Amino acid sequence: MANTFNVERREEGKVIVLSLTGYLDAHTAPVFEKAIQDEVAAGRLELVADCAQLSYISSAGLGVFMSFIEEIRGGGGDLKLAAIMPKVYQVFEVLGFPALFDIVDDVPAALKNFADGVRPAS
Amino acid sequence: MKKLLALLFLAALSVLALVWIFPRRDASRLWQLELNRDGVLARARGIAKSRGVNVDSWTAAVRSRSVGWALELADGGALDAVSRTQALLIFRILFRDPAVNHRLEIQLNAQGRLLGWKEDWENPPLATRRRAEAEIAAEAIRWFEELAGANAWRFRQINRGVRQGREEHYSWEWNDPAVSPHVARVEVVFAGDRFLSANFQVTESRALAESRQARQSLQIVAFAVVIVVIALVSFIANPIFFRALVRGRLRLRRLVTCFALFAGIWLVAASGGSWWDDRVFSAAEKFTSPWVDLVGNLIGWVLLFALITVMYGTGRVLIAEDDRLRWLAFEKVLRGNWWTRIVGEELTAGALGGTAIAAAAIALPALLFPGALLYSSSSDFAAFRLPTVWPLREFASFVSAGLWFAVWPLCRKWRWGPSAIGMGLFVLAGMLGVSMIHAVFESALLPILLGGLIMTGSSIAVYRNFGLLATLVAQLAMLAAIDASTAFNQPAAEWQASAWRIAGLGGALAGAGLLIAWRGRMIDVDAELAQLDAETVQQNTGDRDRLTAEFEVARRAQQGMLPSVPAQAGVFDLAASCQPAREVGGDLYDFFAMGDGRYGVCVADVSGKGVPASLYMSLTKGYLAAAGPEESDLRVTLADLNTHLHAAGKKRIFVTMAIGVLDIKERTLDLARAGHNAILWRRPRRSESRFVQPKGLGLGITTRLLFERNLEVTRLELEPGEVVVLYSDGVPEAMNIAREQYGEERLTAVVERCDGLTAEQIQAEILRDLHHFIGAAPPHDDITLFVLRWGENGNQ
Is A8 on the interface with B (CB under 8 A)? Predict the structure, then answer.
């Protein structure tokens, strides 16, 4: 069904994993935005977006990632992207996101990067 | 989808709950209706005929009412011998002769037993005294025995032809304090020889009447609170509405459609209900024509729909940004585009949710208050022509539709407390509204308030999770569930059939919703919301025309800003075009001379749609125009552009661009790709088609340093006959009706087919193929192309 989107939150130690499901477009972007906003407001700046169930992303959705990344990194944290579907990854890739964001294959890899302090060069 | 499945599950549970609880607990089980309207009319006609009054050609109207105090006793198992004789539900059947000066009212109980007969003339014929006293008395006794039935022996005659004005009264009473505090009475009235009326009635005891009086005043308080809330909301809403209307912020067409929608639904409900019967009854009081009463009544209804429309308009103008989505499905219905998925989803959600809410509102009070009387339905449905449409009555009500339209937006606009006070008022009104509709019994006050709270609270949950349309449909479904359960409680086969029909319609509604949700059109949410906003932008009708004209001007200006691309530059031929999907678009192409045989070519795409995107496009264009021709290093041009856009943009808007520097002397093309689609490079001599995708971030996303570090410039060494196509994502992402995308493969195929043609011809062919593919589907995104080709000697 079109335009269904869901964010599920879980904690892995200090890192918050947000699992995204469905379509991320202008309709559903506010849901994702609020989820990140809640974490940032609470000072939890180590975030992983688990995109395994994310089937579509539009420019509005991309905008959500972009609008928080500077704030999160400024606070010493990061927003890592994990398990992006090939179709969706293409959208990220064309825009050049791999150079901006730490994109990994799965959530454990993202957690490992947090543990090892790996961040994209900025 | 998950939410709908959850609702489906809840609805199924609800049906089970209703099926289990209703027959055991709801007061409607006590009515035991054995007749429906047709049966009642047939019975009454028979009775009239047997007394010598042929009413076949007379107008007939039927009303029903239940006797609250008796119902209460019956539910509590507190009936005694006397109160047991009181009918719980009474049918009133009124016949009026065609000359409208003679009326006959017959009263029957739910099983069709005669309770009363009353005959009246506008100009009563003169009373004659030709019959013997004994004969009249005997007739009176015959009536008494018929009405009192098996209990006749318990009555004592207390009036034997007592004169009251022109009438003679014969009365019998069963008044035995040892048996019951209530009094049963049969009264037979004659005017001279002529029999006028006979009726059987039980009067409740004084104590009971007094206690009910106290409770009825509670009901009046509830009624008053609801009226005050409604009046308050209307009072606040009207100025907002009319101010918005005058300023052209509301589309008249929508308002009219809204009005027509509710009026239409009411019409269906009224024709199936007792609305016309009410007119006949009230006209009969005064021996006037029902049509007279109709006009006054109709005016009242028209005002109601006007008020509902005012509430709709108010809400529409006030809705907060994140609430717009919740109104979208309802707006689509008003616009006639009901075959869209969101409409289907909300229809289903409403149908299922309403059922679940109804069950919860009945089941929870039933569980928490085991002894309480549940009185969920008024009894007038018993007389309806078409009980199946009975649930529609609430849809066109102010309390349902009117408040839902306006109260939530009003609360949010004024943020009373954290809008808690406002919502609190709303919930209170809802609770009391529900309790006001039904008689408030002492034992049932809390359960009814709880039921009202559940109904209002859950409806709010439906609104927040699904939307306005779902909430309105839920009100309807709630009633349908309760009405069907009530009808199922009645033994007559006709009532069972009615119940199945109502349940069936409810199921059909949910099914239709599912079908539409599955097969309906998907909509472009961004575009729809933009249109919703645009409609409430301040403008009068004159301005609206001007705005359309200005959009047209803007469009032409934007097209005019696009450079004219020469057909030839050296050995290269060029062609470019841009087709915006909306009046103004977010794509651009550009071409500028850099001197020394070098030219800049580019295609750019701003994220987003409509006016905001086109403004960024202009910004980009302006910058390119200023710096492009001057700066020889493509990297610097792009880095500067990125810096400007990064600073100007709100971080969510970005621009993608494919830009190249064509050197006609060296026959090279230096390409850079800032987050844009890959560039197609067709090489016929090598029978090769490639997509060139140098590294590069979108413009405006990040800082200069990062941007530059990730930017690659690729040099293409061109050969004769080769074609380079720069395009925006509107080309590969163009969709046909089957929602397939055009894709890069089709683009490549077209370009390969066009080996040997000029850039102009290639472009035309691409566009032709693209539009052929799209067919009748609406344009989704701007379509921009820039084709350059090294024309071979001797070719056109």
Answer: no
Q: Which of A2, A3, A95 sits opposite B656 (nearest CB)?
A: A95
CB B576 within 8 A of CB B773: no
B300 within 8 A of B397, measured Cβ to Cβ: no
* B698 contacts A96? CB cut-off 8 A: yes
Reported as a pLDDT band with limits 50, 70 and 90, residue B500 is: very high
ipTM: 0.73
Secondary structure letter of residue B527 according to DSSP: H
Count CB atoms within 10 A of the CB of residue B5: 10
Q: Which band of pLDDT confidence, cut at 50, 70 and 90, is reported for residue B417? A: very low
Taking the model in full, what pTM does it have?
A: 0.67
**pLDDT (tens digit per residue) in B142-194:** 999 999 988 888 999 998 888 888 889 999 999 988 888 899 999 999 988 88
Give B795's pLDDT tier (boundaries 50, 70, 90). very low
Residues of chain B found within 8 Å of residue A99, distances taken between Cβ atoms: 695, 697, 706, 709-710
The set of residues, in sequence order, having a beta carbon less than 8 Å from that of B539 and lying 6+ positions away, is: B247, B248, B249, B547
Q: Which structural domains are found in chain A, ordered by start?
A: 5-116 (3.30.750.24)
CB B656, CB B699: distance < 8 Å = yes
Tokens at B262, concatenated = 């509710």
Average pLDDT of span B235-240: 88
Please name which of B677, B676, B558 lies closest in space to residue B619, comparing C-alpha atoms.
B558
Residue A121, pLDDT > 70, answer: no
Q: Give me the helices (H) in B110-205, please.
A: 133-148
Q: Do A60 and B656 touch (CB under 8 A)?
A: no
Tell me, what DSSP letter sits at residue B401?
I
- Four-CA torsion B188, B190, B194, B197, nearest 10 degrees: -40
**Residue A94: per-residue pLDDT:** 82
Average pLDDT over residues B573-590: 80
Does an H or E element contain B164, and which?
strand B156-164
Whether residue A59 and residue B710 make contact (CB cut-off 8 A), yes or no, is no
Of B642, B641, B693, B653, which Cα lies nearest the Cα of B672? B693
Contacts of B309 (CB under 8 A, 6+ apart): B255, B258, B259, B262
Q: What is the largest CA-CA distance in chain B?
A: 132
The residues with which A5 forms a beta bridge, in sequence order, are A22
Counting Cβ atoms within 10 Å, is residue A82 exposed (0-12), middle (13-18) or buried (19+)?
A: buried
* Confidence (pLDDT) at B796: 41
Residues of B in contact with A70 (CB under 8 A): 651
What CA–CA distance (Å, rounded) separates B458 from B353? Answer: 9
Task: Work out the number of other CB atoms within 10 angstroms of the CB of residue B796.
Answer: 9
Distance, in Å, from the CA atom of A37 to the CA atom of B368, rounded to the nearest integer, reads 41
Cβ contact, residue pair A95, B653, below 8 Å: no
The nearest alpha carbon in chain B to A90 belongs to: B677
Residue B356 has pLDDT above 70, yes or no: yes
Task: For an interface test with B, give the residue of A69, A94, A102 to mutate (most B CBs within 10 A).
Answer: A94
Q: Strand, coil or helix: what is B318?
A: helix
Domains of chain B: 31-204 (no CATH), 216-532 (no CATH), 564-790 (3.60.40.10)
Give the model confidence (pLDDT) of B270-296 as tens digits: 888 888 888 888 888 877 888 888 888
Structure tokens at A45: 């700046």
Chain A and chain B share a number of CB contacts under 8 A equal to: 80
- Share above pLDDT 70 across residues of chain A, in percent, rounded to a whole number: 95
Phi, psi (rounded to 5 degrees) for B647: -75, -40
Nearest Cα to Cα of residue B369 among B441, B424, B436, B302: B441
Chain A residue whose CA is closest to B325: A27
**Spatial contact of B108 and B45, defined as CB atoms under 8 Å apart:** no
Residue A1 is nearest to which of B517, B651, B652, comparing CB atoms?
B517
